[in-house]
Fold this protein.
Amino acid sequence: MLHVVIMAGGSGTRFWPASRDDLPKQLLALVGERTLLQATVDRLAGLAPVERVLIAANARLVDAIREQLPDLPADAILAEPCKRDTAPCIGLAALKLVRNDPDAIMAVMPSDHVISPDAVFRESIRAAAELVELTPDRIVTFGIKPSYPAEIFGYIERGELLAEIPARAADAPLRLYVARQFREKPKLNVARQYLAAGNFYWNAGIFVWRAQTILDSLARHEPQMHAHLQKIAQADAASYPATLEREFAAIRGVSIDYAVMERAKNVVVLEAPFGWDDVGSWQAMGRLRPVDAEGNAVTGKHLGFNTRGCVIRSTDDHLVVTLGLADTIVVHTPDATLVANKHDEESIRQVVKLLAERGWTEYL
Amino acid sequence: MLHVVIMAGGSGTRFWPASRDDLPKQLLALVGERTLLQATVDRLAGLAPVERVLIAANARLVDAIREQLPDLPADAILAEPCKRDTAPCIGLAALKLVRNDPDAIMAVMPSDHVISPDAVFRESIRAAAELVELTPDRIVTFGIKPSYPAEIFGYIERGELLAEIPARAADAPLRLYVARQFREKPKLNVARQYLAAGNFYWNAGIFVWRAQTILDSLARHEPQMHAHLQKIAQADAASYPATLEREFAAIRGVSIDYAVMERAKNVVVLEAPFGWDDVGSWQAMGRLRPVDAEGNAVTGKHLGFNTRGCVIRSTDDHLVVTLGLADTIVVHTPDATLVANKHDEESIRQVVKLLAERGWTEYL
């Protein structure tokens, strides 16, 4: 049976001041009316019922997630007591699934990306799940065709074509390849080589496998991690909170890419037939939201004079007026405002760092 | 006896969103901790006691003024029922003064300029008052030595030197000249000629005269206005409010420059020995407030990265962060934020106009 695990642990400092420690990117309505997490859950309609959706997130976010997704069953949120990267989180989810359904197939996906059309996404997840059903030890990853030499994504090098799977929602048959190699975030010149080579994909962090397969892989490649996870899984209801707290904290945090994908032999890559955007920064609003005639992406109340190429975000009652402004990001929140040159946007991380250093935690 | 009339009627749309219909420029603390009006009153300490200070302002502002100046006697505010420019307002004040003190000497000054040092200002007003005492029909104006060919001020052309008055607070003797001619705001090329000629001053809107002198001038040059003002002055307490409302509204609004200064023959100009700034726009903050090493004039909570030549205004609890910003004005208020290129600042007037057109009066 197909289960979906949504990874909602990201902290997303790039969207400060809209994003905060307790309100990370995935909980913001950055693109449409729904938050990125809500849109991710909406996208599953018809693919897996809510009883088979698990959301993994830091314990601090549980209340906010429950509020955004009131239809989710109470035990649908897997609370991580601390940040330990993706591998322990995926392992914990897999253990939870196999307990009730030893043959559980597990689709893992981030909570903070924009994907469309939803039907094409569902079709490709379904195809991957069927593939795993047929060849149970397969690990299916999704590769995004790169549109520029990005330094901010990991890459997957594809090998030979394994299959073309007929599609209905997608325009063309789905293409499945051997995944020859996983590559970490490259330098620009390397990224350019990947782009020119034509057989590299961005790693979207979307995976489909049997839960038991990934547990076996973790047991093999990360035995200590697996042992800690086992202790958590075996705890009874009374001792679960303390065991989780202790054992999860004892795990060395590592990504699923590093722990498994770079080492496993049975990995295939499905070329994503859907549109994908990681919503990496405020600049993405210019791509993902409707823009006005001057190229401004605006949310909330705004009046612009001689304003172009800007990203403006306010609320419905706070008026932002811009005069003679180009390529600038303006984000108003009740207690903090950001005004940033688009080309300096990377520095937002430094802002958040400096706020922490100064002890201005009320803005974090 | 010297009385001071402070003209506090300006609406100052250039400081939106900090300035509003009910909170014009003179009621804002733009430069120091005190508002411009408070600083204007503070400056009079030792020159005239509060019982001899009159503040002329639109009726709508009376409460706010009273709040800012709690030590002022209750009848110190002369409320204008509508906007009629400076001449009717000055006439009304003069009538009020001569009623109790027929020999009243009247110093008239704006409420929204920055002047320093205060002692030099007081010394020059005192000198002008003494001059008027000696030669009772004199009209004394103050001329500011122009520092650039401004198109936004009226000019006074000086004629022959009449006197050098010994000074203590000022560095040099005060110089008094015949005022040869008043000139309205010139075009740039004309302003350049004035600057080059060397005998033109900016008209600072500061005047000293006997109250009776200005009333006589108004009676002669603006007989209809004078008649309306007389009716107001002659009203008894019971009929005063209705009379003021009716008669003041019936006056054709005109400036004192146009009504009197350009026509009168007995005008002299005192070269201002004090520093003067009209605080004409947000840009003035860069001149009038301390700036940081990157030339930013900052009020309120701010963090700047790669930020220079900016004017930033926030409150003590709302954080404004700027990244990669130059020559930009950022003004945060609880319900509106302005982000403007310094060189587009003139457009603020258009913003205010457009807000009115759209009926967004909550921001005006």
